[in-house]
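Predict the assembly for these two chains.
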Amino acid sequence: MPRVENKLTILNRLQDLRNVRGLTQEQLAQAVDVTRATILAIEKGGYNPSLELAFRLAKFFKIGVQDIFYEKGARRE
Amino acid sequence: MKKELVVNKAIRFVQNYLVGAFPIVAACMVWSSWPSDTAPSGIVWELLSYNLMLWFSMLIIFLSVLVIFPDARKKTLTRLANLKEADEREEYLTGKAASSAYLSTLSLVIFLLFISILNVSVTTIPREQAPDGKNRTLSIGLDLSLFDNKQTNPPGTLFDTKRWQVSQAALLLVVLVWQLVSFNLKARKEFDLPAA
């Protein structure tokens, strides 16, 4: 059975998505029911959100989770 | 909703009292260990003593509430972690801080337990008994007694709780066992998966 390395670096394009929609961190935080500090931490790569929050973000932007979060080195569309 | 607000206000009030009154409690404890002529007398001392009793009672009740009610525990941890609002990242941060605090406290308690039961003594023995002229002996041992038996009561004392005062080593041992058992039980409960 193939093994998956146990440390993956997950990156995200949350800041780009937010900027495209002209939203502030505070507005996005309120929309997905977290604090502004959490949005800031996710954008800076200091915190990986829970699966539930990742889905909430995807639902808010009306895109798939994999369109926001991706593995470092993986090809982005 | 209204009930929750009242509970939150009560928790906040107790937290503020415990934090705000701590310097007075500390001062009271310091004063009580000084010679009696320097300690405040009369009504001031009475008030400080009542405050000390109230503070400890409130602390015990508050800690029991934290153990029983998860919401109160969460709010207090958020405040202790110096975070203004709580969300999933706050849980992650307090969880990380708690595990690190747990391990450091555990090592500290083990260290304190070790030095409280370690007994190192150097004694001098008469020269005539000393082999090869070496008249000093070094003994290293461990001494674990659960009760302090130093207290002697004046004659006529019928009951005194100090007779059953537990030793430092016993206290540390209890804290150590409590930490390990409570952590283990909580972890088992959290990690128990439903049967497939």
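Chain A touches chain B through eleven residues (CB under 8 Å). Residues 29 and 39 of chain A are 6 Å apart (CA to CA).
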